[in-house]
Design goal:
This protein has a single domain, classed as Leucine-rich Repeat Variant. It is 76% helix and 0% strand. The chain is built from 10 helices and no strands. It is globular and about 45 Å long.
Length: 184
């Protein structure tokens, strides 16, 4: 029986962050290759791993960081390339990934919710700069106003949902400002 994409991604991220230098280099090269040659499947596997509550928390956190990194870069040319690559992905896959990230703002793990907040913000910057995902701000607002319901009445989890949703909004504002995105 073959491994699920989430399990395969967990194995690669574990090796890429492990102590064995050879295994780490091979895993990092495989991750970079997957991002470059099969970005949709790569992003899908990352969100699947993040959404897997039984997966190690640190790998779920790293998966969110990988999503953010797949959307940005150190130069304008790299950022633009990654933005165009993301926007060229199948619309249904993009919706699935965005929805998964929004749901992860409600995750019981603060590390996973924080990673989701950062990834939501970066994805929001990319999408909003292309006049996409206009419902994002409404969705974030709804997350805050309905946090108790989304947390199933768990007051502590509801407070965490509000915290990380507000963090996502703050990061989003920062990213939009840095990218000089005109939202009018």
């Amino acid at each position: 029986m073959s491994q699920s994409p989430a399990s395969q991604m967990a194995a690669m991220l574990s090796a890429a962050s492990g102590a064995d230098m050879n295994a780490r280099n091979q895993a990092q090269a495989a991750l970079e290759n997957a991002e470059k040659t099969a970005c949709g499947e790569y992003m899908g596997a990352l969100i699947a791993l993040m959404s897997e509550p039984q997966a190690p928390e640190h790998l779920r956190f790293i998966a969110g960081t990988q999503i953010k990194n797949a959307l940005g870069g150190t130069s304008f040319a790299i950022q633009d390339f990654k933005k165009q690559r993301w926007l060229a992905l199948d619309g249904n896959l993009r919706i699935q990934i965005k929805g998964g990230l929004l749901r992860l703002l409600c995750d019981r793990s603060p590390k996973v919710a924080k990673s989701a907040a950062i990834a939501v913000a970066k994805m929001g910057e990319v999408e909003l700069s292309a006049q996409q995902w206009p419902e994002l701000c409404t969705q974030l607002h709804d997350n805050i106003t309905n946090s108790t319901q989304q947390a199933g009445g768990d007051v502590a989890l509801a407070a965490q949902v509000r915290q990380f949703t507000l963090n996502a909004m703050g990061y989003l504002c920062e990213y939009l400002y840095e990218a000089d995105v005109n939202l009018e």
